[in-house]
Amino acid sequence: MTRTIRIGTRASALALTQTGTVADALRRAGQQVEIVKVTTPGDRSSAPIAEIGVGVFTSALREALKDGRVDVAVHSYKDLPTAAEPGIVLAAVPPREDPRDALIARDGLTLAELPPGSTVGTGSNRRSAQLRALGLGLQVVPIRGNVDSRLRKVHEGELDAIVLARAGLSRLGLADQITETLDPIQMLPSPAQGALAVECRADDVDIEHLLQSTVNDAGTRAAVTAERAMLAALEAGCSAPVGALAEVVEDLEADGSIVERISLRGVAAAGDDEASDVPVLIRASAVANSGDAERLGRELAAELLDLGAGALSGPGGKPR
Ligand SMILES: NCc1[nH]cc(CCC(=O)O)c1CC(=O)O
Predict the structure, then answer these.
(1) Residues whose CB falls within 8 Å of the CB of residue 151, separated by 6 or more in sequence, listed in order
(2) How far lies 306's CA from each of 112, 300, 302, in Å?
(3) Residues in Cβ contact with 311 at an 8 Å cutoff, skipping those fewer than 6 apart
(4) Is the pLDDT at 48 greater than 60, yes or no?
(5) What are all long-range contacts of 82-86, with beta carbons under 8 Å and residues at least 24 apart?
(6) Given the residues 24, 67, 79, 101, the one annotated as active site
(7) How does residue 317 score in pLDDT terms, banded at 50, 70 and 90?
(8) What is the pLDDT, as a whole number, of residue 315?
(9) What is 101-181's CATH topology?
(10) Atom 8 (ligand 1): residue with closest C-alpha?
(11) Which CATH number fits domain 223-306: 3.30.160.40, 3.10.20.880, 3.40.190.10, 3.50.50.60?
């Protein structure tokens, strides 16, 4: 392609490093690229994400794509709404970073070493529910802001600990701050955590093919497809916080051949999670062929709902 490819990104340090990896892959493939920073309402507001709504970080980038100001948009995949955007396609999902969550605690402590009553900062209902479900007596404190300002709250003694995505810290060169990488058995990550979504206009077939052949990782794409399908199906029927993690596994068949499959685990809170200090979590897992990732996600969501995920407690319970 002879044209210069304009790649749209948020202007945060994290977004710029993420976009840089996509730009590098395109440059290695011999393309000319230009990075265009787009400011989003999510960057300007300090209100809780639950109030300003899903898509605050991603809709402005999608607008720039549709307007033709940029040719490619790079998002943190987990920040994208599950609903498809008319006129835009997901062209590629690059190889995923470590999807797990990480603890950054004072004095190098792990979760198990934090004394009861310790304050743990997070703005995520998913992390909050899973932390409280451990029954360690941790006190979850809502926080927001960029990674640096969150880390400062621990270093200045305002909080005992915070939980952040390992991927964001690694990309910023801050992985040495992590005091424990949380086992997904205790803390299932957000669907698509650690993955990027690379979008282009639906009618821009040249760019779509270029991104597919230079940036996409088929295994990552199948895994996040399963996680996001689970999330989308739960959003329709459940108001609970949701965690999901899919992994590519290689199964040895009876005839000696190796088949690649997707193994998906999901978690959601039962009932009205805020009604008790220690919420009840519903867990389920399943395996399917990579080609059935979407169906795997939908079926696991149905199972979680059957088991009571997100069922609202008592009369007058309302979705939120
Ligand atoms: N919601 C904010 C957000 N979006 C993407 C990341 C980190 C990178 C990733 O998960 O891909 C983060 C910060 C965090 O959750 O700690």
Answers:
(1) 104, 162, 174, 177
(2) 32, 10, 6
(3) 238, 270, 271
(4) no
(5) 82/228, 82/231, 82/232, 82/235, 83/232, 85/199
(6) 79
(7) very low
(8) 42
(9) D-Maltodextrin-Binding Protein; domain 2 (3.40.190)
(10) 168
(11) 3.30.160.40
Ligand 1 binding residues, C-beta < 6 A: 76, 78-79, 164-165, 167-168, 193-194
Q: Cα of 296 to ligand 1 centre, how many Å?
A: 24
Residue pair 138/120 in contact by the 8 Å Cβ criterion: yes
Domains 5-94+195-216 and 101-181 fall in the same CATH topology: yes
Does pLDDT of 107 surpass 80? yes
CA distance 42 to 59: 10
Distance, CA of 238 to CA of 308 (rounded, Å): 9
Q: How far apart are CA 252 and CA 259, in angstroms?
A: 7
Q: Is 79 a catalytic residue?
A: yes
Is 122 in contact with 140 (CB distance < 8 Å)? yes
User: What is the number of other CB atoms lying within 10 angstroms of the CB of residue 306?
Assistant: 10
CATH topology of domain 5-94+195-216: D-Maltodextrin-Binding Protein; domain 2 (3.40.190)
User: Over 50: is that where the pLDDT of 181 sits?
Assistant: yes
Q: Contact 259/251 with Cβ under 8 angstroms?
A: yes
Whether the CB-CB separation of 281 and 130 falls below 8 Å is answered with yes
- Residue 104 sits at φ, ψ, to 5 deg, of -120, 110
Residue nearest to atom 9 of ligand 1 (CA): 194
CA angle at 38 for the pair 35 and 43, rounded to the nearest 5°: 130
Length of the chain (residues): 320
